[in-house]
Design a protein that fits this description.
The protein is built from eight helices and 18 strands. The chain has a five-stranded antiparallel β-sheet with strand order 6-7-12-10-11. It is of the alpha+beta class.
Length: about 350
C-alpha cells in the first residue's frame, strides 16, 4: 500500500501557509501506488480526491474531507537526443525550478523564461504555466498519466492536452480522471532567446547580454524584486485572472479611464489588467479588520496571508476586492487560484 497519513496537516503543502488538514494524505511514488489504492478502496474517480503538488495555486477555504494524493516522484533524465534537441523526462514531484536550473546548466533551452515559478513539474501541464512571453506548452512533448479509474498508464501528446492560457484538458474533460506521473519536454540545443518581455532585456544587458544563464538570472532578479516570497508572506502569485471583455466595453472604459492598462485578446476582444483596476480602487495594502489577510502593498493582484489567516479570511478579502472592482468598473474579476 502507498504511504497514507491520516488527518494530515497541509501547512507546508500550500503556499498560503494555511493551517488546514486532509482526512487522508497519500504520498505517490509510482503508478503501482494508485493501483494498490484502487484495489483497496475502488475507483478513485468516485471518491472526494485532490491531487496536490506544491499547493502554490490552491486556496483551502476548509479542511479537506477526502483523500489528497501528493506526487513525490522526483527525478530528471534524458530520454533521447539529436544534434538539435534533448527529450528530457521529469517526475511529477520534481520541483519545477530544479528542472529549469538543470536545463540551463546543461545549455538546454526552452524553459529558462519560466525560472523561479513555484510548484512542481506535475502541475506544469495542468496549469500550462507561463511567464515572460513563454509557456510550458511550448516545450512539452508529451505527458505520462495514470488513470484514477483503473490505475492504467497512458501518454498524452501535446495536442491532446489542449493547452490554453493557464489552461489545459486536465482542468476540463480530464479533470480528476488522471494523475500526471511525469512530463517529457523537448529542450533545444540551439535555443532561441525570448527577451522582449517588459523590463527583461534591460536586466539581461546588465548581466552581459543574452544567454540561458543570464536570462534565468535576470528573471530571478526581477521576480525576487517584485513578488513576495511565499515562505515569508503566504501567497499564490496572481490571485485574479485578467478579465477579457468586448472591445466596445474596453473602449467605453478607456474613455473614462485613459490610463487603464489593456491588451488585445483576439477578434473584437480586449484583456484588462486586473491589477490596474484593483490598484485604482485604492486597494494596494488593504487588510481585513483582523489584519490577518490583505492585498500586497506592491502587487495589487497578489493576496497575502499576513499571519494566522484562515482560508475564509483570504476569500473575504477576495470578495471585497471583487465587489470594489465591480462597483467602480462594472467588471467581474475571477480567481486564477483554485478555491477548494
Ligand atoms: C509567488 C508565486 C508566483 C507565481 N508565479 C507564476 C507565474 O509567473 N506563472 C504561472 O503560470 N504561475 C505562477 N504561480 C502559480 C503556481 O506557481 C503555478 O500554478 C504552479 O504550476 C503550481 O504548482 P503546484 O505544484 O504548486 O500545483 P498545485 O497548486 O498543487 O496544483 C495546481 C493544480 O494542478 C493540479 N495538479 C498538481 N499536480 C498534479 C499532478 N501531478 N497530476 C494532476 N494534477 C495535478 C492540482 O490538482 C490543481 O488543480 C505563482 C505562484 C506563486 C506562489
Amino acid at each position: 500500500m502507498p504511504q497514507i497519513v491520516e488527518n494530515a496537516r497541509l501547512k507546508e503543502l500550500n503556499s498560503f501557509g494555511l493551517d488546514v488538514t486532509a482526512k487522508q494524505l497519500c504520498i505517490y511514488h509510482s503508478p503501482d501506488d494508485i493501483r494498490q489504492l484502487i484495489s483497496q478502496i475502488g475507483a478513485l474517480t468516485d471518491k472526494r480526491i485532490l491531487i496536490l503538488g506544491g499547493g502554490c495555486n490552491i486556496l483551502f477555504v476548509n479542511n479537506f474531507d477526502g483523500i489528497i494524493i501528493h506526487p513525490n516522484n522526483s527525478g530528471i533524465s534524458i530520454e533521447s537526443e539529436t544534434d538539435d534537441y534533448c527529450l528530457v523526462k521529469a517526475g511529477a514531484g520534481t520541483v519545477w525550478d530544479t528542472l529549469v536550473e538543470w536545463a540551463v546548466e546543461r545549455n538546454l533551452g526552452g524553459i529558462e523564461n519560466l525560472s523561479l515559478i513555484p510548484g512542481t513539474v506535475g502541475a506544469s501541464p495542468v496549469q500550462n504555466i507561463g511567464a515572460y512571453g513563454c509557456e510550458a506548452k511550448d516545450a512539452i512533448e508529451r505527458v505520462n498519466v495514470v488513470s484514477l479509474t483503473d490505475g492504467s498508464t497512458s501518454t498524452l501528446t501535446n495536442t491532446e492536452c489542449r493547452f490554453g492560457y493557464r489552461d489545459s484538458a486536465f482542468k476540463h474533460e480530464l479533470k480528476d480522471k488522471y494523475l500526471v506521473d511525469s512530463v517529457v519536454y523537448r529542450l533545444s540545443k540551439k535555443p532561441q532567446f525570448v527577451t522582449h518581455y517588459g523590463s527583461l532585456s534591460g536586466e539581461i544587458e546588465k548581466l552581459g547580454g543574452p544567454s540561458l544563464r543570464t536570462i534565468r538570472q535576470a528573471i530571478i532578479n526581477i521576480r525576487n524584486s517584485k513578488l513576495p516570497d511565499p515562505k515569508v508572506l503566504g501567497n499564490v502569485g496572481s490571485f485574479f485572472k485578467n478579465p477579457t471583455v468586448d472591445a466596445a466595453v474596453a473602449e467605453k472604459l478607456l474613455a473614462k479611464f485613459p490610463d487603464m492598462v489593456t491588451y488585445p485578446a483576439g477578434e473584437g476582444r480586449m484583456k484588462i489588467a486586473a491589477g490596474w483596476m484593483i490598484d485604482h480602487c485604492g486597494l494596494k495594502g488593504y487588510t481585513n479588520a483582523a489584519k490577518t489577510a490583505g492585498v500586497h502593498t506592491q502587487q495589487a493582484l497578489v493576496l497575502v496571508n499576513l499571519g494566522g489567516a484562515t482560508g475564509r479570511d483570504i476569500i473575504d478579502v477576495a470578495h471585497h476586492v471583487q465587489n470594489a472592482v465591480y462597483e467602480k468598473f462594472g467588471i467581474k474579476i475571477e480567481p486564477e487560484a483554485i478555491v477548494i
